[in-house]
């Protein structure tokens, strides 16, 4: 088969899967079709965004609907930038910005997220490193990259979606491994890129966020090869930067929308926080960090901590006037607008939410710009300063008034225990010599795949392969499948054959 001329369209195994599109004519659109047609994408309909799809009693975003909206926003950004004559030469110099690439990467960016959202991600990382001995642990972005890449065993591609280099590179929000690529590793830069720093008090564990495990390092290098000399080796491609920015925008808008629908986001509490800071911001600026921490429950204190955090982490763009203007804009639009009337499920209420979402999305898309020499903490594509601050304030509202709730914490602690118990039960099953022939077929295949990826002289090779296989297996479950599997393994389920769907 004749390969496309664009080096960014090269595939790892030569484009063997082309059933859903004309590869030669539109390789990036074929990638998009391949992603949407995969079972990995379908599975996201049963995976938590913030709360479990069945746990709220009302419709909220799951990973599937979130991915679709990120793709919608990302394509709108890419089409706007490519139509702007001011950016034509700069985009070409940086490696290009194709709307099909951006859309495909956005659709694929969450494929590796495990059951129960970010909570599941943290739990699996802890279990992978501390219980299963995997130095790379678990990371949702790296897992997504592992899913789409093709691994060759015995001359045959066994997994993966066979995507082009450009789409795989555009998926890399964090184009480094946890510990040692590239060299020098981004966590040692000053300041480190966003996500590259090690966790506080644990520098040896490597970056908090990373884009690929060491098993996919050769693939990462191949995907990034067309961009060598155009962008820094730790920097996102333009297309990855568009996708990352779109993800931030969708997260900021749609999570606020969700919890207004559910009735969790209350006007009074949000108003008290924003208005108190507006009224007393002069006083708050004179308060020490220690004194501020001692008044954590006082209205206005939390958003003052946000202002200080932005200066500490993102002093390249943090600005007090822009922050104050963002607080005022969010107060008008959210407190006096969306939250002024409780969501009652009426057509009028639905239309009001839709207008809120559309208005904010258009505002953010119109504020996108391309920067030739961005900060270490930013990509080449970024929001203008006023809208960047607005995104931070919207995300603050979600964190403060949803994620910090004790009832959500109670729910998530149960999910964390469930995942721990499930990993332990699968580990015991794998170690039982009498059960080898009755292992779930996918788990058996994943063990073989993981062992083939490791060097024959790897210490504890078999144990590490089993550990990686368990992590891969659990990460491919939906929320309800994880619950059903643990019920079956614990003897709590009496429905013998319906449990087989998770195997």
UniProtKB/TrEMBL annotation:
SMART domains: HDc (SM00471)
Pfam families: HD, HD_assoc
Compositional bias of kind Basic and acidic residues: 180-191
This protein's UniProt keywords: Hydrolase
Region described as Disordered: 180-209
UniProt-listed GO biological process terms: dGTP catabolic process
Protein name as annotated: dGTPase
Origin organism lineage: Bacteria, Bacillati, Actinomycetota, Actinomycetes, Micromonosporales
């Amino acid at each position: 088969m004749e390969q496309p001329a664009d080096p960014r369209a090269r595939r790892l195994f030569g484009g063997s899967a082309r059933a859903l599109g004309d590869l030669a004519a539109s390789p990036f659109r074929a990638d998009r079709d391949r992603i949407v047609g995969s079972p990995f994408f379908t599975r996201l309909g049963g995976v938590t965004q913030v709360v479990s799809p069945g746990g709220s009693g009302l419709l909220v975003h799951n990973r599937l609907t979130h991915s679709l909206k990120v793709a919608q926003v990302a394509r709108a950004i890419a089409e706007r930038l490519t139509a702007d004559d001011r950016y034509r030469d700069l985009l070409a110099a940086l490696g290009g910005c194709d709307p099909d690439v951006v859309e495909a990467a956005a659709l694929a960016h969450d494929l590796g997220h495990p059951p129960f959202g970010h909570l599941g991600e943290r739990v699996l990382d802890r279990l992978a490193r501390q219980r299963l001995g995997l130095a790379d642990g678990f990371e949702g972005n790296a897992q997504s990259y592992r899913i789409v890449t093709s691994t060759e065993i015995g001359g045959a591609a066994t997994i993966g979606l066979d995507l082009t280099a450009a789409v795989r590179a555009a998926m890399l929000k964090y184009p480094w491994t946890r510990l040692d690529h590239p060299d020098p590793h981004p966590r040692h830069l000053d300041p480190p890129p966003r996500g590259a720093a090690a966790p506080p008090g644990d520098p040896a564990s490597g970056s908090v966020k990373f884009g690929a495990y060491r098993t996919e390092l050769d693939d990462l290098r191949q995907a990034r090869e067309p961009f060598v000399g155009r962008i820094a080796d730790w920097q996102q491609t333009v297309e990855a930067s568009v996708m990352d920015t779109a993800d931030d925008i969708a997260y900021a808008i749609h999570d606020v929308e969700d919890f207004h629908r559910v009735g969790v986001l209350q006007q009074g509490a949000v108003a008290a926080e924003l208005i108190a800071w507006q009224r007393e911001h002069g006083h708050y600026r004179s308060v020490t960090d220690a004194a501020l921490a001692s008044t954590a429950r006082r209205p206005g204190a939390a958003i003052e901590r946000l202002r200080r955090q932005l200066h500490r982490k993102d002093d390249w763009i943090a600005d007090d006037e822009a922050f104050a203007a963002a607080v005022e804009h969010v107060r008008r639009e959210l407190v006096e607008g969306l939250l002024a009337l409780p969501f009652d499920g009426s057509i009028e209420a639905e239309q009001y939410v839709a207008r809120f979402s559309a208005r904010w999305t258009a505002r953010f898309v119109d504020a996108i710009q391309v920067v030739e020499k961005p900060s270490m903490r930013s990509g080449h594509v970024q929001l203008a300063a006023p809208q960047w601050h607005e995104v931070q304030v919207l995300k603050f509202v979600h964190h403060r008034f949803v994620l910090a709730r004790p009832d959500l914490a109670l729910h998530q602690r149960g999910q964390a225990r469930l995942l721990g118990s499930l990993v332990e039960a699968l580990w015991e099953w794998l170690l039982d010599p009498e059960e080898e022939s009755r292992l779930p077929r996918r788990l058996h295949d994943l063990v073989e795949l993981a062992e083939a990826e490791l060097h024959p002289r790897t210490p504890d090779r078999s144990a590490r392969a089993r550990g990686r296989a368990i992590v891969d297996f659990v990460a491919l479950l939906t929320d309800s499948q994880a619950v059903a599997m643990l019920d079956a393994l614990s003897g709590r389920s009496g429905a013998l054959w319906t449990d087989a769907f998770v195997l």
